[in-house]
Write a structure and sequence with these properties.
Blueprint lengths: L1 H14 L6 E4 L5 H12 L3 E6 L2 H11 L5 E5 L5 H14 L5 E4 L14 H21 L1 H7 L6 E6 L13 H21 L4 E8 L30 H12 L10 E4 L3 H5 L1
Helix pairs in contact: 2-8, 4-5, 5-7
């Protein structure tokens, strides 16, 4: 009986393992990106993180390097040139990439009568255009990593704002995240035959610079609008991404996993 139990435990650990995988996380210097990086490092992956601001990026990488192998690459994904340069740097370092997490994002808020074109274009360039082209540029490395039994993974970080009314004047952000959810489905159907699974995660409220003006991060509980009564924690987002990157999710393809404590369900 003990041997059977040990065999089951070993199989479960292997099923959800990301040990030894090479993971790229954009926007990895803070917020959800840093939470994801820490989670993968704690479970034995090698992690690359990118961000636009070098000082913050390098500080985060130095902290995370105490856990595992974390490599920082400065990148401006708001431009096509910056996106391609980041991809080329990764190609020079890695022949295979097991997991690409397109997390880098931007937001903009303004009343509908005053919403500027610049705020629209900036958000769309980072949140939609860059994730498509970064994935395109890295397809050879993703194809090289994937197999029928354990495909390479691309995970787009969307938002519940792309699924429900945000109750905020963040028009380009909500539109961009809705686009990410559809792009996830579209790319998944086209890349599955290449042993690349594309999925998304739609987070609710997590402590970050982007949500700081919306929630009291020092409070012990989240606003009452969240059915679970708290903000998202690092384990919540990291656990979802690790699942989607593991053998356990090898047949999950083209879906966006909502991680929001019930907020979207309550919104109807």
């Amino acid at each position: 009986m003990a041997s059977k139990k040990q065999h089951l435990e070993r199989n479960v650990k292997e099923l959800f393992s990301v040990q030894g995988k090479t993971v790229v996380i954009t926007g990895g210097s803070r917020g959800i990106g840093a939470m994801l990086a820490r989670g993968f490092l704690e479970h034995g992956a090698k992690v690359y993180i990118s961000a636009r601001k070098a000082q913050e990026l390098n500080a985060t990488a130095a902290e995370l390097a105490t856990i595992g192998e974390c490599v920082a690459i400065q990148a401006d994904l708001g431009t096509q040139t910056g996106t391609e340069a980041f991809a080329n740097e990764l190609k020079a370092r890695e022949s295979k990439i097991d997991v690409l997490i397109n997390n880098a994002g931007a937001s903009w808020g303004a009343p509908i009568d005053e919403f500027p074109e610049g705020g629209w274009d900036k958000v769309m360039n980072v949140n939609v255009k860059s994730i498509f082209f970064l994935t395109q540029f890295l397809l050879p490395q993703l194809r090289a990593a994937g197999s029928p039994e354990d495909p390479a993974r691309v995970i787009h970080i969307a938002s519940i704002n792309g699924m429900t009314h945000p109750k905020l004047p963040n028009y380009s952000y909500s539109a961009s995240k809705a686009a990410v959810i559809q792009l996830t489905r579209h790319m998944a159907a086209d890349l599955a035959a290449d042993n690349i699974n594309v999925n998304g995660i739609a987070p609710g409220f997590f402590p970050s610079k982007m949500t700081k003006h919306l929630v009291d991060e020092s409070a012990e509980s989240a606003p009452t609008l969240i059915p679970r009564g708290r903000l998202g924690q690092a384990e919540d987002i990291a656990g979802a991404a690790i699942y989607l990157s593991s053998r356990a999710a090898a047949w999950v393809c083209g879906h966006t996993l909502v991680v929001d404590g019930g907020s979207a369900a309550q919104a109807g």
